[in-house]
Design brief:
There is one protein chain. The N and C termini lie far apart (36 Å). It is built from two helices and two strands, in the order H-E-E-H. The chain has one domain. A hairpin with a 4-residue loop joins strand 1 and strand 2. A two-stranded antiparallel sheet has the order 1-2. With 80 residues, the chain is mainly alpha-helical.
Length: 80
């Protein structure tokens, strides 16, 4: 009989999700006086960002040309 891995997978993704949410709250706090260009507050519900492929490093990265504000850039970097 194969070992059950579902619980371990759930715990793994739960830790990633929790860490992301904690980092996103820090970004919100750091940019409380730095709203988005639309005037919306800096939070993970309002921020959209673009990522690209960094050929030098061989990984995904935040595209600084399409992420104009500190809030957006920092929220994007939390994802990686």
């Amino acid at each position: 009989m194969a070992p059950k891995r579902g619980k371990n997978i759930k715990m793994f993704f739960s830790r990633i999700c929790k860490a992301y949410q904690q980092c996103a709250r820090c970004v919100e706090h750091d940019h409380v006086d730095d709203p988005l260009p639309s005037g919306a507050p800096c939070n993970w519900n309002e921020v959209t960002y673009e990522v690209g492929w960094d050929l030098e490093n061989g990984r995904m990265d935040c595209d600084e040309n399409t992420n104009p504000t500190g809030c957006v850039t920092n929220m994007c970097s939390v994802s990686f």
